[in-house]
Structures are given as C-alpha cells and as structure tokens.
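Our consortium's second objective concerns turning raw sequence data into structural hypotheses that experimental partners can test. To show how far this objective has progressed, the report includes one record in full. It was chosen at random from the queue rather than selected for favorable results. The single chain below, 664 residues long, was entered without modification.
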Amino acid sequence: QQSFFPNSAFLERHISIQRQLADLEKLAFVTEGDFDSASSLNSDNLDAGNKQACPLCPKEKFRACNSHKLHRHLQNLHWKVSVEFEGYRMCICHLPCRPVKPNIIGEQISSKMGAHYHCIICSATITRRTDMLGHVRRHVNKGETKSTYIAASAAKPPNEILKEADTDVQVCPNYSVPQKTDSYFNPKMKLNRQLIFCTLAALAKERKPLECLDAFGATGIMGLQWAKHLGNAVKVTINDLNENSVTLIQENCHLNKLKVVVDSKEKEESDDIPEEGEENFGNIKVTKMDANVLMHLRSFDFIHLDPFGTSVNYLDSAFRNIRNLGIVSVTSTDISSLYAKAQHVARRHYGCNIVRTEYYKELAARIVVAAVARAAARCNKGIEVLFAVALEHFVLVVVRVLRGPTSADETAKKIQYLIHCQWCEERIFQKDGNMVEENPYRQLPCNCHGSMPGKTAIELGPLWSSSLFNTGFLKRMLFESLHHGLDDIQTLIKTLIFESECTPQVSFQFMHLQTSTKEYGVFIKTTDDTTTDSYNAQGKRRNNDKPPNLAKRLKTDVILNILPFYYNIHRHSIKGMNMPKLKKFLCCLSQAGFRVSRTHFDPMGVRTDAPLIQFKSILLKYSTPTYTGGQSEGHVQPASEDTVADTVEMSVNDKAEASGCRRR
C-alpha cells in the first residue's frame, strides 16, 4: 500500500509517511488501491456515521469504529510516536510489511505483528524509534537526501572486474561485505587461494587428471585459477547453492574463455566457434546444490571447503567419497571461537575446551586438525597433515586421506588432551592410557603446583598432538610457487619449511644456495617426501618396489617431530632486563645444543625443543640490565647457572604474586 504525492517530484512513499494528521485520517475513507484520490476527499466525510478502519493497523488488531475514536487512535498510537524529517512524519506502522518469524506454542502458531517505521529516504523498515532516528541521522551526515539518494539508486552500478593471478573475475557491488551481497569476494584471502593452488599443483604432479571440487564457489575465482593455470591436469567443479552466484560463476567462466558444463550439457556463448586469437583453456562444471549432497553423490580427488564461518558441518560428507590419497583442504574463518574469544562457541562447534594462551594460533590449528581427524576416522579413514597455517583472517588445514581402519586407528591415537600451566605457560600432552592418574601435575616439567597456592593447571583439548607439516610436500609447493610466479607466498612457504625442520633460516639458506642454483636459486629435493616415492602416477603403490610398512612410516614421523607449540620471548622476558635481538637469541639456543626455528604463527615466537627453564635461563643470560644502558653492544658477563635459575624462579614468583588477586 503506497500513497502518491503530487508535490514531491512524483515519488511514491508509504502511506505511513504524511504531513498532517488530517491526511492520515483521510486514508480511512480510501479503499485499497485507490489512494490516488485521497487528496480529493474533504473533511466533511470524517463526520459520517459510518465506521472506519485504521489504515496502519490490520483488522485483527484494530476493528472499525467511529470517527472520533479513530481520531484518538491515530493521534495517540501513530502520530505521537512518529519521526519527523523535512516536514513529513514517519508514523509507526502495524501492517504486515515486515516479515516476522512465527512462534510455535504447543500445537498453535502465534504470529506476532511487528511494529515498524518506513524510512522516507531509502524505504527501509526499522523497528525501534531510537534506531529510526539514528538511521535518518546517518543519511543526513552522508548528504543523502530524498532526491540525490533515489537518483543514485535508480542507476544500478555495474559489476566491477578484478584481476588476480592472471584471472579476471566479475564481482558485485559491496563484494567485500557478506551481508550486502550473495557472491562474497575477500581480497585479503589471496594468500589462502595461492596456498591452495600450490597444493593442487603439487598433487597434479603425482597423478592426473584430478577431480577437483570448490564446494563454495561464490564468484568462482578459485576454481577459475585451477582450470586456467593447470589446464587438462584437473577437472574442476564449482558449486554454490545461491542462484545469483551460479549465474555470476558462469559469466566469469566466459570472461576467462572457459567452457561451462551445466547438467552434463555444454553451455557456450552465442558463437560456438571461438574468434580468431581466442583460446579455450578448459571446461568447468558448475552445479547448484547443497555441498553435503554433492559430496555424497560424487567422488573427488581434491576437495576444498571454505564456508562462511566453521566447516565442521561439511567434514563428514567430504570424507565420505574422497578417493584414496586424495587431499582435503579446510579453511575456517570463525576466528573468534578458534582464537579463544568465544570459548562457548568453540565448545559447541568443536567439542573443545580452550583458553587464551601465548600459542593460541597453533592451538586453533590443532583444534581444526582434531575435528578433521575425527570426521575421517568415522569414515574408516586416516589423515596425514601436509601443513596447517593460522593467520589473522583464517585457519587453513590441508590433509592427505589414507583409507583403511588401521590408518583411522593410528589417526585417532594422535588426538590427545593438553595440560597447560597458567603460571609459567608450560605445557605437555597427557600420557596415553586409560588409568586414572593420582596427580596429573606430575606430568608437567614445572614445579608451580608445589610452590603456588590452589590449582595451577588446566586441561585443554582434545587436540591434534602429532606433526603439522610435511617437509617434502612443502618443498614441492615451493617449487610450484616459483614455477607459476606466485611471489607473495614464497616467503611463507620457506618459513613453513624451516619450521617443519626446526632449522635456523640463515644456515638453511646458506646450505641450499651452495648446493644448487638450477631451480630458481632454491634446491628442491622431492625424495624427502615419503608419500610421493611410495606411490605411482595413478595414486597406487608401485609393484616393483616393496611398499613401506605404514606403522614404520608413522613411527618415523613421530621421531622426526619436535615438541609442539612455541614460546614468545616477550611473554617470558625478565623484568628490568633488555632482551637480545631475536636472531641473536636463536643463535644462542642453537649453540647450546637445541633445535630452534622461527614460526609463522607468531613473529616473535620461537619453536624449540628446549625446556622452558632452559629457555628462560638462556634468555636471561644474554639479556642486559636496563639501568646499565641496554643499548650498548658490549658482551655482558654471563651469570652462573645457579644465579640464572634463582632469577628465573624469582621472576615466575613475581608474576604469580602480581596476578594472585585475579586468580583468587
């Protein structure tokens, strides 16, 4: 129901927007669809004895009554609580203009009518008066009047074309705001897309062609990059449940000269024969169905899950039909729950108990891997983690699938609980076994439970307790990034390689630059990857070679693993002391006989197999007192081991006393 105003530049507004109360009363005489003649009615008709209905209330809410009662109703219920703007009054409306979710009470359905306001500028419906005032005020601050705003909205802005990795993609307006568009495109996830591309490129060297699935296509940018750069090595399927997104994906396929296959029928542009100078890079199958249904119906070699938020609802379907030695990549963007900002959500989605620690990013990665491992074990499949990355906007986990109950049992054994000391940040995974331990605090290397009052440790998990990186696969990813010119992720992949080997970056670069300079200046040795050597191009074991025992291979992986998690040198700094530079501290730990490397999880984090007490001792040994001029470059006389240990223990006690009131 709308009203026509001849003095407002022929703009239509809702009937709840009027200049005077008399104009609102005149609408009671006008039948539905005849509001154009409302101005021809005079006030004499208001005194008629016929009953009149409220034009802003449904018949169930306000029955027809006499004119004086209707006047009182309109004045008290609608006019007094209206919002004024440029001579118009936006009255409150009770008509079913705004959809309200019905409430089921017993066997009856009660539909409560929602009162709301209609904005005179953008025709939005606002429920509260205070929100309506703020809504209009924002329009005024932006300079959006009824003339300029309507003129701008009449001409719909065209879709913008972006370019990423030599792939053109057409995006809708407000493409970076999920609430305002159906096809969401986040430019900040470029690093994520390049990591997944290198993963698929490395897998394509093992066997081809690969059946690949982008379960949540949106604009289709990821699947387009796969098909355009890998060609006939992959058979790409892009899926999305939204019809507008599917249409946009098809347009982007034609934009990149790719053929679209929909429901096994080839759908091309108007000209079947490509023009001179054009080139068709491959075919892409576009589907419109629920991701769980699609993964139940078809088998794939590579599946990428990137829903908006958590991906736990799609893991069971992903592992149901994934082929042996296939790869599943999972991108989780529910950072608030994984990074311990919403702990109740993490318990609800992942069944995991977490708190905010210094290693919270690696904790988030191990939570996602544990959820993936449990989903694979339910389908009698095991996993091998190729790499796990946790950055500011997402957590990416890439695993290889190993079929069989033996692999599933070995995978399930690697999901354990973690004991975390809240005083000194020491941590250790619980020992295997079903017997109840009398004193779990004995498993921790620290002595905080004996020296501090109350309970000092908490139990976190369940978490993935094994390795997070496969060194051989990461080296092959580095080669693919060099081959395809993806310069943005080369530094990250190198950091992952150093972290997986727990090797200082300086010595690694020196060794490999001296070894070989044929492959883009980086020595790539793929024979370290145990999964590549034992399988042929079709993904099966070689018949002429004896396959390595799975138990021995898993045992070797455990031996190569370092202690999980890392230490932040700022978190363990000594009060009144200036810390050494991070590179110098890494060299000091290496000279002390410990394995050490930096980590991508934290720019100031140190991954090492040194115990925390030794970590703090070396940190104190090479720190300088603040009052003696910490900026001097001279070597400080090292303290004795007894003095260092006493100082470290005193530092822990000072931190415990400082936070004692908060913990009690």
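The partners drew two points from this record. The first strand starts at residue 2 and ends at 4. The two ends are 63 Å apart (CA to CA). Both points have been shared with the crystallography group to help prioritize constructs.
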